[in-house]
Amino acid sequence: MPRILVLTNTLRGEGGSQRSTLEVATHLRSRGWSVTVMCGMAGDLSEPWSQIAEIRMVRQPVFRRSGAARWLASALKVRRELRIDPPDVVYTHLLSLVPFARTVFSRAIPIVLHVRDDPSPVSRRFWRAQYRRCSSVIFVSNSMKDAWREAYGGHRSYTVVPNGVDHRAPGVLADLRARTARRVSGGSTIAFVGRDAKEKGLDVLLDAMQREPLLHCDLVIAGSLSRSRPRIAMPGLAERVHELGYVTSPWPLLREVAVVAMPSRREPFGRVAIEAMARGIPVVATATGGLVEILAPLPECLVAPGDAAALAEVIANTIRSPPSIERLVEVADAYDLANTLSGVEASITATLTPAP
């Protein structure tokens, strides 16, 4: 039975990376792997993780920029704990955890980095060295591969494996059936699903909401608000913006929305777009990162990042004349979770086979 150690920073599922990592680990466990997850913070995904893996909580300073002596002491403590029964491979979605992994484990144990975010804009030389210490790299999109190649150079062993959605999951099918049965357009309600971070562009969407084409529309936000809360409380928005907060699975609450807006300034992949279209919900997104690849069959649904006027216009057009449910599902079907998981497993397994 091969043994894999998953390194992550949190078991909170608000970011898509954590949910995707759990999917990979669950798949490997079903394939006979022994799975251990090591993280610094518990969260709403702790329970599903506990069903498929041994969970080792490590003090948070290990994963932050704390003092070097303290960091090294924590790493060596973990090294002693795992000396008797080390993993066969280490898997992480964070480049920041690679120095920790290499301190804990010998070079004989491969490290697989699953890239789900942009390269760091600082300390390029240091992170380039850590990137090259990885045995294999998996990119979620071609745009991510190109961005990392530009920042850190090429890697000797890499694959591109797009994220996917389980289109046969009961929840997805139930949401799709409900929407298909009513053939609802969702009226004029727009949905935003994600974190209130600058790169997600919620501020651009709020600008669009105050422009003529969308003045009659409501906005539902499925995600925790922080930086945008004062803006939303202003007259003209307060009565039209509705906050659901962070919801592990918001889609049953969004069955009748007209469109999902993804105004991201940067988006490594764009899993929300696939999740929405698999349920028959149209998506309007910015032409950045993986969204360009996902929505290539629907170019009329793409706008330039940061252009609130264009975003408002395209959303209004999509509400008036949405793509058919069948077309949306067809686009989403190209990103099937089974293909994603088999591709990731193949990349991880390849690191266990000595090079000829």
Write structural notes for this entry:
The chain has 356 residues and is of the alpha/beta class. It is built from 14 helices and 13 strands. It has helices at 16-30, 46-52, 68-81, 98-104, 124-132, 142-152, 170-182, 202-209, 229-232, 271-278, 290-294, 308-320, 325-333, 337-350, and strands at 3-7, 34-39, 54-57, 89-92, 111-115, 136-139, 158-160, 189-193, 218-222, 241-243, 259-262, 283-286, 302-303. Strands 3-2-1-4-5-6-7 form a 7-stranded parallel β-sheet, with helices on both faces. Strands 10-9-8-11-12-13 form a 6-stranded parallel β-sheet, sandwiched between helices. Helix 3 (68-81) packs across helix 4 (98-104).
Give a nutshell description of this structure.
By secondary structure, this protein is an alpha/beta fold. The protein is 38% helix and 15% strand. The protein contains 14 helices and 13 strands.
Tell me the distance between the termini.
23 Å
What's the number of helices? 14
Order of neighbouring strands in the sheet with most strands = 3-2-1-4-5-6-7
Outline the low-pLDDT stretches: 60-64
Overall average residue pLDDT: 89
Instruction: Give me the secondary-structure category.
Output: alpha/beta
Topology:
Elements: E1 3-7, H1 16-30, E2 34-39, H2 46-52, E3 54-57, H3 68-81, E4 89-92, H4 98-104, E5 111-115, H5 124-132, E6 136-139, H6 142-152, E7 158-160, H7 170-182, E8 189-193, H8 202-209, E9 218-222, H9 229-232, E10 241-243, E11 259-262, H10 271-278, E12 283-286, H11 290-294, E13 302-303, H12 308-320, H13 325-333, H14 337-350
